[in-house]
Amino acid sequence: MNEVLETIRVNRAFGEVVEGEAVVSEEGFSPRYDLDRWSGVITKPGHKLEGTLIKDKICFFPTAKGGIAAGWAFYDIKHKGIAPKALVFGVTNPVMVQGAVFAHLTITEGWSRPPRECIKTGDWVRVDPKRKVIELLKRK
């Protein structure tokens, strides 16, 4: 087991324990409007993560964007094999949570401190929903 360098507590969480490379955004996320659902790349012009592949990543977003169609988009990208391992939101909404649960994606909401204070894109992290923690295991 890896040494834990930093720990962030989350308020709510669902899913399996997952580990992977972090993608940390300062901007919110909509799986319907920000993401190309055939490639898994964020393609919304001007998005701070434009050009970033989210497949198999642990994705950190301050907010969720989108309404009812965003929920089914998670199932769509999971079915296509291009979904992230986990979605870590500062604030999300019931539709996004429902979509993640339906797609069997790990999802969390709320945090004890903003992840970007200690986690950078490329770092290796573990999300443990049962313990309600995110652990930084290795820096990029």
UniProtKB/TrEMBL annotation:
InterPro entries linked: PMDh-S-like, PMDh-S-like_dom
GO terms, molecular function: lyase activity
Organism expressing this protein natively: Pelomicrobium methylotrophicum
Pfam family, one: AcnX_swivel_put
KW Flavoprotein (keyword) present: no
Protein name per the record: DUF126 domain-containing protein
Keywords: Lyase
UniProt domain Phosphomevalonate dehydratase small subunit-like: residue ranges: 29-106
Tree of life domain: Bacteria
